[in-house]
Fold this protein.
Amino acid sequence: MSNPVIEAMKTRRSCRKFKADPVPRELVEQIAEAGLWAASGMGKQAVKIVVVADKTLRDRLAEQNRRIGGWPEGFDPFYGAPVVLAVVADKEAFTAVYDGSLVMGNLMLAAHSLGVDSIWIHRAKEEFESEEGKALLKSLGIEGDWEGIGHCALGYAAEPLHAGAPRKPGRIVWA
């Protein structure tokens, strides 16, 4: 018997080349909402998702990420994805990184289940610790001390995604 959730976990792949085609707002809303349903330490729900669909802001975020990553000018660390969901977690929550990581997993699985491709892009921590990143959050009404967990880049694959690698044996240990 096949389970659709487990099947999505087994078939989701990271996309490293997106088409410029927009992702319909209704799908982005569903994906973002799925992120909010991730488990959180003590039920604190101390994670926010910043939906970056505006191209100017998306490109500004990509440029900051590129500089942090040390890539040459013109490189797009979001691989052309038209939408980026930036996940930030309240630093006051001692489970912030774990909670934000669970949100990221939900976002990617929800996207896959809706026919939208995704990839987790790092360097959000460095972005939102910078003055530029803090100012961006403040401009969006997000006050306090937030840690960037990751970016979930969303879009449609410009080329077929690679098949998953076989799972390494010996990674489940029964006691």
In short: The beta strands are 47-52, 83-90, 117-121, 146-155. The chain has one domain: 15-155. Helices lie at 4-11, 25-36, 55-69, 96-113, 124-129, 131-139. The first strand starts at residue 47 and ends at 52.
